[in-house]
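Anyone up for a design puzzle?
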């Protein structure tokens, strides 16, 4: 999976209006306009059920939250007083929107290699997850990704490849713990 979702022409036009870098959204009007475009795009994607289930769960299901809190990423927004569409308008939501649209933020050759390894190994194969952990570390080194940032993207990738949450978290932890 891990590919960008296919957008309709109208959705692609809306996406073109969205600024994905919160630092570039300095002016209040720009933040407001951007938030409206995000809400408009999400409404269309939700209506046609275009967001892959695992990407939605990553945001809404507490089991997929890798932080210390016993909540979801959505719950984090809610804990700061954001509700409903306000969450989607928030500049910090943009990284989740990008994930919904494009999948894990990792180099394409890395993604393809990991998908191939999981396919050969079997996402739900019994046995040790250590070969996938080692492979993920090797890929991170080969592609010179920053482990602290890339570890969460490996987690998303592992989930999208069909690994169970505990196995995906193990892959994440292996990359995160690299020195």
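Challenge accepted. My sequence:
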């Amino acid at each position: 999976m891990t590919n960008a979702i296919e957008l309709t022409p109208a959705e692609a036009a809306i996406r073109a209006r969205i600024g994905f870098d919160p630092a570039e959204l300095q002016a209040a009007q720009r933040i407001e306009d951007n938030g409206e475009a995000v809400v408009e795009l999400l409404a269309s994607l939700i209506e046609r059920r275009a967001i892959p289930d695992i990407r939605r769960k990553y945001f809404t299901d507490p089991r997929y939250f890798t932080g210390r809190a016993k909540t979801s990423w959505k719950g984090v927004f809610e804990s700061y007083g954001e509700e409903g569409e306000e969450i989607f308008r928030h500049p910090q939501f943009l990284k989740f929107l990008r994930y919904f649209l494009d999948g894990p933020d990792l180099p394409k050759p890395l993604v393809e290699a990991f998908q191939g390894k999981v396919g050969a190994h079997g996402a739900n194969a019994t046995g040790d997850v250590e070969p996938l952990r080692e492979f993920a570390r090797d890929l991170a080194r080969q592609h010179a990704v920053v482990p602290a940032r890339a570890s969460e993207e490996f987690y998303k990738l592992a989930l999208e490849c069909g690994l169970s949450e505990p196995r995906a978290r193990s892959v994440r932890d292996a990359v995160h713990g690299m020195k």
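A detail worth pointing out: The two ends are 29 Å apart (CA to CA).
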